[in-house]
Write a structure and sequence with these properties.
The chain contains 25 helices and 13 strands. The chain is of the alpha/beta class and about 700 residues long.
Length: about 700
Amino acid sequence: MDLTTMTTTINESPPFVSLKAFEVASDALIAILPEDELSISDLDRDEIAERIERFIERATMTGTVLDTPDDRKTAQALVDFWLAKLYSFPRETRSKQGPSIRGDTLLRPFDRETVKATVANGNDLLASFRRKDAKDAGDSKSSLRRILLRVAPWLGDDGAGYESIARRMLLRTVRMPEGDGSCEPVTVKRDDLLSLGDHKRTREVLNALIASGVLREEPGGLISLRYEALTRQWDELRALITERVAFRDTAVFWAQRARADRALTSARQANKALGDYADLNELEREFIPANISYRNKKIVAGAIACGFALAVAWAGLRVGYLTWEDAEVQQAIQTIVSGGDKRSTEEAIQKLAKFGRPIGFQSLPLEDLDLREMYDRDKSPPIADFVKSAIVRVKFIDATLRYASFSQCKIYDAEFRNAELSSARFDEAVIAQSNFSGAILYRAIFDHAQFNGVNDFSNADLRSASFRNVAIIDGELKLAGTAWWLAFGWSLPQIEKFADQLKDTRIEEAKGFNDDISLRKKELKNATAPEDRVRALNKVAWTYATYGADLKVAKEEYAQKALDEVKRIKGKTEAWLADSRANFTDTIAYIWLQEGNPKEAVRLLEQPGIVDANSDSDLLFRYAFALHALALEKEGDEKERLERKAQANLEKSLRDLHYVPSHELYLLRRYITGEFKAQLANLSKEAN
């Protein structure tokens, strides 16, 4: 489990980052209030009252990041509600004294100067990124070449400059909800941002954004905007958001005009959107390849008609004009668009890959092609786009196709063996008789795909891949040697079927498991600082736990050591220590639960400071399982009490906090029974 952000005293915790985060925390706090306040113990009553006090303290500080009158009015109303609740909450064993003065519960003034300073830092940083990019570019691009880049984006770089990476990272910290005309801040994982380009460069950019104060990093590598107010008061970010909203508006306009070619935008803008936006909706995913395909055909046709671009290359003008490589690339694109014979198409696609250029064509008929080893695995490849293509007997063996899109493709008898397909998209594809064995499908998306015949995923890396609402028709998925339960979206019947079919699987012998554990142990070996060491210890234990392997080793040699050693660390804030303790305790409790001891799991999770109103969705989900598992061992009123509590936490985790479970559904399947099972199935169906 990654470290999560938990509430402690205001001196050690930041304000809520936005009004939405504030409201979510308030709803979570309401959920823990007992129906009958007089029926609970004095100890529980005191603990709840203290949580309310801590919440009020943190809530009032949230005023420093709320700049609009409506947001401040809403926030103050919530503070007043909890203040009234605190005064009315009966407490017998401790002082009934609430907050000392009314002024302590007024929202703090918006800290305009701090936000201004952050904006200035952000502007300076982006300016420095532009200077770096200009220096890297040097004098390699002549005036004519720059003009050509505007009409032929495939002739340029892959968009992975410093400023481009910074832009993509900033856009990842906001999301545009479906049907809305604005963006709202969200929290993203550090690793997701580091995957947006060359790892060394993305790390440099991300660290600089955090150091400038534009972004903030929370425990566990969670990244968010420092202030929600930046979306309104920072011109650079506001311009990116405006451009994002405009792109969706353009896609909607295209749909309203019966998807006419004249309503399309530029291929450059479409390519830019594909790389920059992580919240593309279904319409936008159709709009982008339509643009790329139409504009590429138009540009190539124009180039052929006037003979300009190719004439420059063929004339041998190497300096300041099109290079020989550019001419080769342009000729390859012409071959693909014009629909040449199989061998010519194969050679043209491989040529684009050889030169590190993107493949952005829609509805290609690809048959009997050998596209193995496409792109260099040691480099960050451009995005390959095969949307709506017919792919028949094509070999992508050992290809590197991270972020590639095979959405809505018809794929038959294709070979993806040992391919690098991290974050690739196969959503709504029809896939038959194809081989993904040994492929890296980390975070790949197969949502709403239809599988026909036998499709081989044996020994593939399916960690965090998504299989929501897939249909397996007249065939099966071969999953031998694969930790298939680390993927998201399997239905409960599918999990039961796979578990029965693969009951003899020894995941400890699988290459993927051993590679993952070896990597975590290497991180542990290289950890020098005490705080890095305890995190690394827990990561090893958590990796064992999510695979369901070597649980005794995980608990005794790693998880318990992490929990013991964190108590001896000096110089860290109380917030950091509380987060770490909760995180490591959750790991041990999860292992106890897998070992069939829900009583110990519940005991650990109900220690003070482990599960509270601000706990993350995954922790609450496993807590719900532990409560239900313990209820199965009880009778009468105690059983009913535990079941009610379990179902309340399950609903909060899945419906309110939108947790999407994966490994728990397989590793804890013995506990999925009765009303709990029905509720789990219904909530999962709602989420999908």
